[in-house]
Amino acid sequence: MQENIIIAGHHAHAQVSTSWQQQLSHAIRDPDTLCQRLGLDAQWLPGAQAGHRLFDICVPDAYLARIKPNDPNDPLLRQVLPIGDETLASPGYVTDPLEEADHRPVKGLIHKYANRVLLIASPACAINCRYCFRRHFPYSENSPSRAQWQEALDYLRADTSIHEAILSGGDPLAASDRQLAWLVEQLESIPHLKRLRIHTRLPVVIPDRVDEGLLSWLGSTRLQKVVVLHINHANEIDQAVVDACTRLKQAGVTLLNQSVLLRDINDNVPTLAALSERLFEAGVLPYYLHVLDPVQGAAHFDVPDKEAQALIQALLEHLPGFLMPRLVREVPGKMSKTPL
Ligand code: SF4
């Protein structure tokens, strides 16, 4: 077992000097390797294989290095290791919990809320989170080519009430800087657009993603920039993540975080308090704490509303107001998130 620890640590370290693209292409994508690298008992393998068949495993080394080997309860491992429960059908858990299919006026664009639209900038993610509400999203039908982007851009140009473009995915930062620089150039030429918001987990999963290529287009746009990270546990924030956040801030980005409340991962007061504290140390403000979207295969992560509300009440005694995330749920058809 000791050997595994050294191999895992050494390998992760060796990867750090490579580009983010190489790190992504070397990500672990099968249950055997994941279990082996972390020295997990063979009893976890059948569940991992069953879940993997429904939604692929993807774990880059830079993230793996933050997982404690030999610990099936590690809060980062629980986010990426498929278990047999994913195959269970649960009443009310569906493939498109937010009913986004109803809000796609043109390919690659979701217009749900007033004044802002969401663009699916990349179908890929750098990590596959088991609780993801888009685990069944038909990305192949929604990743436009450059020509098809024109249709989405025309939609934005024509609607002067839209002030904010939100790049989403998958993970929008999984797209190349060339593509992103082109897209942002198109967006900033639309006079009524004021803000560019990017929802991403990549700076957390592979901190080297925040490289010069990214900072050059992000740092130079006239649009106000907000990056909403997705971090669920303080252990996800190592020094490399802090450094990536610092680089984003130096480029003029406002940094926020949203988390998902997850059973056995962050469903207690000390863990949530530590997350907020650690986020602030990294220069990030807690923004939302989402209750789980009822996506098929993720019911075992659910924390009931009453318990979630009690947790937030208790958390108030441990944190200053500006470090309190807002507990929300996304309700299909509603014009905004619903506070709980
Ligand atoms: S990074 Fe975000 S979109 Fe991708 S799998 Fe994780 S939660 Fe889902």
Automatic annotation (TrEMBL):
Keyword Iron-sulfur listed: yes
Q: Where does [4Fe-4S] cluster bind?
A: C125, C129, C132
Q: Name one GO molecular function term.
A: isomerase activity
CDD domains per the record? Radical_SAM
Enumerate the catalysed reactions: L-lysine = D-beta-lysine
Under the heading Gene3D superfamilies, the entry gives: Aldolase class I
> Per its UniProt record, what Pfam families does this chain match?
Radical_SAM
Q: Which cofactor does it need?
A: [4Fe-4S] cluster; pyridoxal 5'-phosphate
Q: Which UniProt keywords apply?
A: 4Fe-4S, Iron, Iron-sulfur, Isomerase, Metal-binding, Pyridoxal phosphate, S-adenosyl-L-methionine
Which SUPFAM superfamilies does this one have?
Answer: Radical SAM enzymes
Modified sites of kind N6-(pyridoxal phosphate)lysine: K337
Q: What are the TM regions of this chain, as residue ranges? A: none
Which PROSITE patterns does the record cross-reference, listed alphabetically? RADICAL_SAM
The chain positions of domain Radical SAM core read 111-334
UniProt lists the family membership as follows: Belongs to the radical SAM superfamily. KamA family.
Descriptive protein name: L-lysine 2,3-aminomutase
List the taxonomic lineage.
Bacteria, Pseudomonadati, Pseudomonadota, Gammaproteobacteria, Oceanospirillales
Q: Which gene encodes it?
A: yjeK
